[in-house]
Amino acid sequence: MNDTPAGMHALIDCAATAVTAHTRWVDDFPTPGVRFADLTPVFADGEAFGAVIAALAATAPDAELVAGVDARGFLLGGGIAHALGTGVLAVRKAGKLPPPVNTREYSLEYGTAAIEIPQDSVRLRGRRVLVVDDVLATGGTLSATAELLDAAGALVVAVAVVTEIEVLGGRARLEKYPVTSLVRL
């Protein structure tokens, strides 16, 4: 992996090109007036997926663990962890992990939700963690994930996403962490 600044920018540019070329746009989904960026074709294309994994892995080459956010973040997290030679932690929606768990509730534009991580079955204290997901929108899910990991004693070294919807301002909720998005919309 080429993690020099110029090398990292080249990886991000390559991945951004692949994401732009393969993203399928769906109007009025999941609700009228929303234009949904479907990344399924990006993940289904081996070359595009590989470019995304390489670019996201380059954002935190010293990470000791990758935290993938439910559910598309799992796909990214597994690939990035493999590329970095680390493990992967699945950050789950509430009720999907057996107890005991650590939970963090957060606000969405349409209500509240909660995410969870194992309370004691995975050592987090002092570990350098890269948080990954497919989209940064309002920042609620990613902010809650980072806070949950912080509370467990982990050091969140970076947050990385495939796409960022800038108009929703989610980056502001993550200002204490380095944030990388491959494509900003």
What does this entry show, briefly?
Helices cover 32% and strands 33% of the residues.
Could you outline the blueprint of secondary structure elements for this entry?
Elements: H1 5-22, E1 24-27, E2 35-38, H2 40-44, H3 46-57, E3 65-69, H4 72-84, E4 87-93, E5 101-108, E6 111-118, E7 128-136, H5 140-151, E8 155-164, E9 179-184
Parallel strand pairs: 3-4, 3-7, 7-8, 8-9
Antiparallel strand pairs: 1-2, 4-6, 5-6
Helix pairs in contact: 1-3, 3-4
Identify low-pLDDT runs.
none
User: Can you summarize the main beta sheet?
Assistant: 7 strands, mixed
Assembly state of the chains shown: single chain
The CATH architecture name reads 3-Layer(aba) Sandwich
Enumerate how many helices there are, as a single number: 5
What portion of residues belong to β-strands?
25-35%
